[in-house]
Each structure stands twice: as C-alpha cells, then as structure tokens.
Amino acid sequence: MATVEDVDFAKQDGLVPCVTQDARTGRVLMLGYMDEQALEQTLATGEMHYWSRSRQELWHKGETSGNTQRLVGLAADCDRDTLLAIVDPAGPACHTGETSCFFDEVADEAIPILPRLQEVVDHRRQAQPEGSWTSRLLREEDLAEAKVEEEAAEVVARARGEDDGDPLAHEIADLWYHSLVLANKHGVDLADVLAELADRR
Ligand SMILES: [Zn+2]
C-alpha cells in the first residue's frame, strides 16, 4: 500500500493532479491539484484541500460555499503521480452549481447511468414537462407505488418462468427505474440508497 511519502510531487513541479469521485454515486466530480501541504491538510482534517493554481494558494474546498468534500478514501495511481480521492460531498463540486464539473458532454454517455437517471428525475420534478411519464409518477397519488408493485411482480413472474414476456434484465430495469422515481417522490435520492448499500459492506 502506498503511503503519503510515496506520492511523487517532484515529477510535476510539486503538484499532483487529484481526480475526485463521489463515494455514493461513483460520479467523477472534479479534477484538482494538490501540493504536499494540501494533501497533509486533507488527511489531517478529513476534508478535501487542493492547491488553487489560479489563486496560487491552499484551497479548502467549500470553505466559502459550504460545499465541502469529506474524504472517504484515497488512492495513488500506478506511478504515484496522480491521486484519486473518494469523497462524500456536502453540495455541488462545481462553482456553476452543477454536481460535477464534467457536465459538458463532448460525446454522449459521459455520466454513469444511475446518476444520469437521478438527474433526469430531479429535472422532471422541477420542470414538470407535459406528457412526461416520470412527472406523472411523481405527481399522481399512488401511481409510483402501484407501478413498483406491478413491476416487482413482473420481475418475479419472469424469474419463475411464469411468462415469456420481456427478458429479465428489461423487467429489472423497469423495477429499478420506478423504484428510483418512487424514492425521489418520498424525498430519498439515489445517493441515500447507495450509501445504505455501502454501509452494509
Ligand atoms: Zn467546475
């Protein structure tokens, strides 16, 4: 296992890039730089510190915005000149208010599917577009609840070989999607569910 002393700060003028990832959703949040002091402060306080290249100073992430990042895990890459920080963020990583700095997709599907679905559901709740099934699920009394029940029954029927409808993966995807919407309707988001799973490890 690498230790702090093993991190190769010499290679890039005292700085190492740090990729920061959400512990709960797996989404890559940002890329920052760390000097030795930033790494020491991060480990000492349990909150992410970076070296701000624009301001040329130690940067305690979230100090002014409140959007701190609690350190959950840290890894060095194979040649120990890049870090991967796994964090529990208190708010958006990006100064634009986006969850992740990487929201501007150059090619499709740059966001993992579950966080992407969560964002779609959040958007539907806020914008309530006409004709959106997700909006209806969020709005209508007992619709999401009834759908989860129905989809769960379809998964089980398929698994038992009681019907020869859609493939099992299709039925499970329906169940997961409707469960995600139902959770959202009741103020629980994907991160809460994933955190629950992580706690059981
Ligand atoms: Zn950003």
Description:
This protein is 38% helix and 18% strand. By secondary structure, it is an alpha+beta fold. Helix 2 (113-127) packs across helix 5, helix 3 (133-139) crosses helix 5 (168-185) and helix 4 runs antiparallel to helix 5. The model has no long low-confidence stretch (mean pLDDT 91). The structure holds zinc ion. Zinc ion is lined by residues 30, 94-96, 101.
Keywords:
single chain; 201 residues; alpha+beta; Ubiquitin-like (UB roll); two-stranded antiparallel ribbon; binds zinc ion
Topology readout:
Blueprint: E1 16-22, E2 28-34, H1 36-45, E3 49-52, E4 57-60, E5 69-76, E6 83-89, H2 113-127, H3 133-139, H4 143-159, H5 168-185, H6 190-199
Parallel strand pairs: 1-6
Antiparallel strand pairs: 1-2, 3-4, 5-6
Helix pairs in contact: 2-5, 3-5, 4-5
The structure holds zinc ion (ZN).
Residues 30, 94-96, 101 line the site of zinc ion.
